[in-house]
Design brief:
A six-stranded mixed sheet has the order 5-6-7-3-8-9, sandwiched between helices. Strands 11-12-10-13 form a four-stranded antiparallel sheet, with helices on one face. A three-stranded antiparallel sheet has the order 2-1-4, with helices on one face. It has ten helices and 13 strands. It folds into two domains: 11-243 and 317-331, 3-Layer(aba) Sandwich (Rossmann fold); 246-309, 2-Layer Sandwich (Alpha-Beta Plaits), CATH 3.30.70. The protein is elongated and about 80 Å long. By secondary structure, it is α/β, with parallel strands linked by helices. The two termini are 34 Å apart. The structure holds adenosine-5'-triphosphate. Adenosine-5'-triphosphate binds at residues 34, 41, 43, 61, 63-69, 212, 354-358.
Length: 358
C-alpha cells in the first residue's frame, strides 16, 4: 500500500467551519437492552466514560462486549434504554451539520462496487456541504490518490477501510469514531493508520478507535476504555493500565508445610494456591523468581518448580475482560490525563439470544 502524506485537513479546505464543540465524547449510565423478557439481550449496562480531545482512545472489549452498540447510540442509530451519549455536550440528533462535528466509520462500510473511489466521495460531498475538490484531498490523506479512478468493486478490505476513513474525514470533523479501523489492514497499513490517527489527535481531534485486541492498538492509543459484557471494567491512560500488569511467580514444593511457612514469613501476595498430597503450589504476585529462589535456598525449602512470568498488556486485558465486570481504575496510580472513569454497576449480566432492534 502506498503511504499517505501527513494529514493536513484544515477548516479552509473543508468548507464552512464546524460549529463550536469541546470535542468531548461522554457516555453516562448508558444502558441498552434489546428485546424483553427471558430473551432480552443486555448489550450495554450502566456504562459511563469520557473521551477527551487531543488523544487517541482505544475502546476495547472482546467480541460482543457492546462496543458497536455504544458507538451506534452515540451516533443516534440505536435509542438507549436509559442513560445518555453525547458529543460536545449534545445528543447526535441535536447537532447541527453533524458531518462537520463527528466522522464515524462503523463496521465494514458498503460501497457501490461500480463507482470509483473519487465518485463515491463526490456523492457524499454535497450532502456534507463541501466542494468536490475535498474528495481528492481526503483520498490523498488516506493514501488512495493513485487509485482514485478505480472502481471500488476491485478494492481489497484494507482499501475499503481507507475509503471509509476518507468518507469520515470529508467534513473535517473534530471528533472521529472508528469501529475496528485496523480490520483488514496489513502490517504496513496498520503502521500507516497509527501515524494518521496520531496526527489527527495531535491536531486536537478526539479519536475513539474500537478493537477487540489490545495489542492491535497498543502502539496507537494514549488512553483505554475497556468494557466486557456491556460494562466498564477499566478506564485510564495506557501507562496507568500498564502499571496494573504485575509480575508473578509460579512455585511448587513437595513439602507443603515448608512452602506455606516460607510464603507466610515473607508476606508475599498469593494470586492462587493449590494442594496435591504433600505438595503445594503457589502463584505469587509482585515478586521475582530470583527473590523466591533465594528465599527458598536460604530457608532450605525444596522446590520442584520455579517460574517467573511478566504479565504483558494483552494478558492483563484478557484477565480484565474475563473477570466479572468491576471498576479497576481505582487501583491504578494517579489516573493522569486519561479518560475519566465512572464506576459501573457490578450487577450480573445475562447473555440471551439476539433478537429485536438493530
Ligand atoms: N439489534 C440487535 N438485536 C439484538 N441483539 C443485539 C443487537 N445488536 C447487538 N446485539 C447484541 O448485543 C451484544 C453486544 O454486541 P455489539 O455488537 O455491540 O458488541 P461488540 O463489542 O461491538 O462486538 P464485536 O467486537 O463482535 O463487534 C451482543 O450480544 C450482540 O449479539
Amino acid at each position: 500500500m502506498s503511504q499517505a502524506p501527513p494529514p493536513t485537513p484544515g477548516p479552509s479546505t473543508a468548507g464552512p467551519p464546524a460549529q463550536h464543540t469541546d470535542g468531548v465524547v461522554r457516555v453516562e449510565h448508558l444502558t441498552k437492552t434489546f428485546g424483553s423478557g427471558p430473551g432480552a439481550v443486555h448489550a450495554v449496562h450502566d456504562l459511563s466514560f469520557e473521551v477527551r480531545p487531543g488523544r487517541v482512545t482505544g475502546f476495547l472489549g472482546p467480541n460482543g462486549a457492546g462496543k458497536t452498540t455504544t458507538l451506534r447510540m452515540l451516533l443516534g442509530l440505536v435509542a438507549p434504554t436509559s442513560g445518555t451519549a453525547t458529543i460536545g455536550g449534545r445528543r447526535y440528533d441535536q447537532i447541527e451539520r453533524p458531518a462537520h462535528v463527528v466522522g464515524a466509520a462503523l463496521e465494514a462500510a458498503s460501497f457501490h462496487p461500480g463507482r470509483t473511489a473519487r465518485d463515491h466521495l463526490r456523492v457524499y460531498a454535497p450532502q456534507v456541504g463541501v466542494p468536490d475538490s475535498r474528495a481528492d484531498e481526503v483520498l490523498a490523506l488516506v493514501g488512495l490518490a493513485e487509485v482514485a479512478k478505480r472502481r471500488v468493486g476491485g478494492f481489497s478490505l484494507g482499501m475499503r477501510q481507507r475509503l471509509a476513513l476518507a468518507t469520515t474525514l470529508l467534513g473535517d470533523p473534530p471528533v472521529l469514531l472508528l469501529d475496528e479501523p485496523a480490520n483488514g489492514l496489513d502490517p504496513e497499513g496498520i503502521a500507516w493508520l497509527r501515524g494518521l490517527l496520531r496526527a489527527l489527535a495531535r491536531e486536537g481531534r478526539t479519536v475513539l478507535v474500537s478493537s477487540h485486541v489490545l495489542s492491535e492498538v497498543e502502539q496507537t492509543v494514549d488512553d483505554v476504555v475497556i468494557i466486557a459484557r456491556g460494562q466498564l471494567v477499566h478506564a485510564s491512560s495506557l501507562p496507568d493500565l500498564a502499571r496494573l500488569a504485575r509480575p508473578r511467580v509460579s512455585v511448587v514444593s513437595p513439602d507443603a508445610a515448608a512452602l506455606d511457612a516460607l510464603v507466610a514469613a515473607h508476606g508475599w501476595t498469593v494470586g492462587a494456591s493449590g494442594r496435591d498430597g504433600d505438595a503445594a503450589s503457589y502463584e505469587l504476585l509482585d515478586v521475582s523468581a530470583a527473590q523466591v529462589g533465594a528465599a527458598a535456598f536460604g530457608g532450605r525449602v525444596e522446590l520442584h518448580r520455579l517460574a517467573g512470568q511478566d504479565v504483558g498488556l494483552e494478558d492483563l486485558f484478557l484477565q480484565l475482560t474475563a473477570a466479572p465486570a468491576q471498576q479497576t481504575s481505582a487501583e491504578a496510580p494517579a489516573p493522569g490525563p486519561g479518560p475519566a472513569p465512572v464506576p459501573s454497576s457490578t450487577a450480573p449480566q445475562t447473555d440471551a439470544p439476539a433478537g429485536g432492534e438493530r
